[in-house]
Design brief:
Blueprint (H helix, E strand, L loop, with lengths): L24 E7 L7 E5 L4 E8 L1 E6 L2 E6 L3 E4 L5 E5 L6 E7 L2 H4 L5 H11 L6 E4 L7 H16 L4 H19 L14 H14 L6 H7 L4 H12 L3 H19 L4 H7 L5 H12 L3 H13 L1
Antiparallel strand pairs: 1-8, 2-7, 3-6, 3-8, 4-5, 4-7, 6-9
Amino acid sequence: MQNYNIQTDEHGKELNLHGDEGFACGFYDELFSKFIGGYVPWHWHDELELIYVVKGSTLVECVEQSITLNEGDAVFINAGCLHKLTDVGKPDCHILNFVLSPTLIGGSLYSKIYKRFVASIINNESLPMFAFLAKNNDHTPLISTLNLAFDACRNKTPTYELQTISYLMHFWALFCELQPTVISKQPVSDFSERRLHLFLSYVHTHYQQNMSVKNISKAGNVSESECFRVFKKALKTTPNGYVLNYRLQQAAIHLVETNSSITEIAHTVGFNCPAYFTKRFKSHFNKTPKQFRATNQSNLND
């Protein structure tokens, strides 16, 4: 299954559902060229995420951390952590992806297994993500086990759910054994991700209106200079840069999912001048809005 659009609420929390109540694990086989905009925008979710790079390379960014993964590498992204994925090379990056409820591994929230081996990792604020590299021999068993889980889901045998859970639990056990620091108490970073959530919530709610750094900084009750510092440190961009990119991403979604005119879309996402919108859109996506709409609506129909 391919995701095309990562929908989020005003706080940046993903709205897409993963799996169902009977099997709370979403499995995805994805090409970056199929994502609207060609990348996975900043978002977070309550589920754990496991990604394996089949082909190509992707830059994985979390707050204050980033790593480029190449073919054969994998990454764990912790629950509740803001993250973004970008294709950084050729060929078109191809990934396999699990987004799963923590209870799928730990069982009941009150069980000893959940408290000791799952909650302790979820609550580790110094662990937004952990990369498993193909060139690291210690990581080979984890990557191999993760691939067995992907194979089980892809083959859809009569017992694939049991097989998938079994391999994922084995992967988790290896993770805890080979990287024991992930479940130990770590010093908490002095950076407040909660403040960043306040900034992003304001942007996602008001991006259609005129917006200034002053407005954004007020949402976090900090000075404008502190607002700039937080954005640069956490997301490697400025507040205005984030607003622009978010508006362009929303415009891309409107272009693919609606028949509204380009002028209407420009005004809807906060641009007063359609010509300036077209210029920035082409600079960002290497396509005019018209070209982008034609290409991506065709992809959705494939």
